[in-house]
Amino acid sequence: MKFDILTIFPEIFDSYLNESIIARAISQGIIEIRIHDIRKYSKDKHKKVDDIPFGGGAGMLMTPQPLYDAITAVKKKNKGPVIYFSPQGKTLSQTKAENLAKKAQDLILICGRYEGIDQRIIDLCVDEEISIGNYVLTGGELPAMVLVDAVSRLIPEVLGKDESHLHDSFSKAFKRKKEYPHYTRPAKFKGMEVPEVLLSGHHKKIKEWRNKNLK
Ligand code: 4G3
To answer: Which pLDDT tens digit goes with each residue over 74-124?
Structure first.
């Protein structure tokens, strides 16, 4: 699965792409992530990518030309839908991530900055507007990483067999509920003990305890 990400801050992705699970998926060729600097497409003599809003108001907007040319260039190698991240988009869910992973089609992800992008880019180029939650960030880069992460870990082979996603919070196996509390060693920490039943080895009772404690 290929992700082409368009941003004016390509360096933001450096540390994320070096994270162990994602780095391994990339080196194994399971996913491919290409970062594109929108500024490189600016035809302005100062490589400008922003401008003031028509009609007035605070803040700046991303100007359409660099974005349009960047999207057009990326579309030659990526035939998948164009996703734009904004607080106005449809909220990302586990179900949405599962559907994207299942289709495994390539995706083009647009990261806006400032107060967003010129509406004509949304009308001309964007297939889907997605939000990662009801709050405003300084840019769409964190949402793009969130989507890549949520989708990639659902692709078979990305997680090792000890990292299965089949029992995640919100997964079908958990009836989309949350999870039961987890404990690891030591059995006593700061005076607090692990529930007795989890140490018992009694699988049926453990199952009952976990079901009772789903939240
Ligand atoms: C568009 C996405 C983009 C308009 C982007 C701000 C939050 C989200 C931006 C705008 C973003 C989100 C850039 N902030 N909730 N910031 O997914 O006002």
So the answer is: 999 999 999 999 999 999 999 999 999 999 999 999 999 999 999 999 999
Q: With beta carbons less than 8 A apart as the criterion, state whether 122 and 84 touch.
A: yes
Ligand 1 centroid – CA 7 distance (Å)? 13
**Is there a single domain that holds both residue 143 and residue 194?**
no
For the Cβ of 115 lying below 6 angstroms from any atom of ligand 1, the answer is yes
CA distance 147 to 75: 19
Could you read off the pLDDT of 177-193 as tens digits, one per residue?
A: 679 999 999 999 999 99
One domain, residues 94 and 68: yes
Tell me if 62 sits within 8 A of 50, measured CB to CB: yes
| Contact present, 67 and 121 (Cβ < 8 Å) | yes
Q: How many domains is the chain built from?
A: 2
Whether 132 is in the pocket of ligand 1, judged by its Cβ within 6 Å, is yes
Of 86, 114, 117, which is best to mutate to test ligand 1, by the most ligand atoms within 8 angstroms of its C-beta?
Answer: 86
Q: State the CATH number of the domain containing residue 48.
A: 3.40.1280.10
